Amino acid sequence: MQRIIEEKKTAMDWVEENREWISDFHQLIWNYAEPALREYKSAKAYCEVLRKEGFEVVEGTGGMPTAFLATYGEGRPVIGTFAEYDAVPGCSQKPVPYRAPRDGLNPWAPGHTDPHSALGVAALAGILAAKRAMEEHGLKGTLKIFGEPAEKICVSKPYHAAKGYYDGFDAFVVYHPSVVNTVCWETHAGSYWNVVFTFECLEPEKWYRPEGGMRRGGHAGGRCPAALDAVCLMYTTTKYTKEAMLPRTAYWTLNEFILVGGQCTSDNLPPRIGQISYAFRSPTLEMQEQIYRVLENNAKAVAQITNCRLSIKWVTKTRVGLPNLTMSELVYKNLELVGPPRYDEEAKRVAREIQKNLGLEPMEEPLTRECQTLLTPQKYEAMRRRILPSWVRNFTSDDYVEYTWHAPTARLYTARATLKPVPGFVYPAWTRYALGGIRSTIDPMILTAAKTIGTSMVELLTNPSALERAWAEFKERTGGGIKGSRWVPPLLPPDLDPPTDLRWPEYITTPRGEEWWIPTPRKESG
Predict the structure, then answer these.
(1) 203: containing domain
(2) Which pTM does this prediction carry?
(3) Is the distance from CB of 470 to CB of 327 less than 8 angstroms?
(4) Which of 109, 229, 356, 499 is deepest in the core (most CB within 10 A)?
């Protein structure tokens, strides 16, 4: 046992020795703020660090330019984790205690919300800490870290899973920022699907048929409804049928995003192409299938109405999360060893400044108790279950669930600095975004997670009996393990190409320089 303690101490010491570098690297990723499937600078920065640290790095995994896989060591056990680094459009915010868009005056540029910048850096620091312990103590095994782009549309992990990247692992330790410090227990995330319907007006001349046999089209005659009307009708029809899709329970959601809106065709020419994306999440795959049946039926009807050809492209399909309490207990014990984040007076000063700028009375203790203490997984589970029907076993969505079906997996949470509630007042979203970019209010969360990930990996490398227990539970839950009677395979076909070609929001380069694809709004004169 003493040997394991020494190895964990080595991992924790590495994080402390490198806390300044970890903070600087987080600032780098936070300021890149690149959105889903367009995280070019962020992915490159991770790959450069990992190569420098002696990892073998493969870029572009799964057909995604901003994905990667980095490997250190050899043999078993094989322990994995992942980094995320995508930001969210429309959430631009400077690391300051007042509302200020990060990208000049453009509020529509991306910003890190959860923040994934901290998620990825914590996982990176955690695996580097475990690597240091392997080097100093001669530990055998393999460490792997995936670069996972586009979590906000749950893309990369289902494609990696379908193409076999998660096969052959012994365990995964994964992470997400939170407002509490704990480990996920029984209620893991539910399923998320995203599908794009494309409407194309290929033969507008066949729409107009006046009496007498003369066809009048173009500028002088009638115009078929075409692609823009198709998108509008799909939007409206789905709004009307949404209430009939499923019962209003279990916190299922359906949201849409118009990718292409007619391409700004001129005069009375029919818009030739339109695309609308639907993202939906629910606690079961059966509910997902029902939502899709309604969407597909609507799309077919709309295409016929508007004289368009319909094509359907899947963006992603995730499974639901599979718990492993053995792994959760192991990781929580290491979180107890590390202790909760410690937010100093500077972090509290920032919090008070935010409260003051919002017109609130600054508090002597402006941060929640929950972000500075540990919460047992069992108590966290009980809190979640209070709002859920008894039959609901999964809640919200996140594509980390793909990992849970390929090896025993634990999901760690550590808390960012969180403002204490004020009765009758809701803090605006920008406050969370700002706290995610200010060193004093985000670094403690990252360091706590990195130490916990590192020590958990060390334990998995040195404690084979823990892995045996985790696998026994995995096989019990899946009816025999990988391909057991209750095991759910990846939902995407292995030969499906990732949706990197769609018109996702991104930074663009023009003669004016680099800018966000939506122009800065101009104020009306006068």
Answers:
(1) 191-318
(2) 0.95
(3) yes
(4) 109
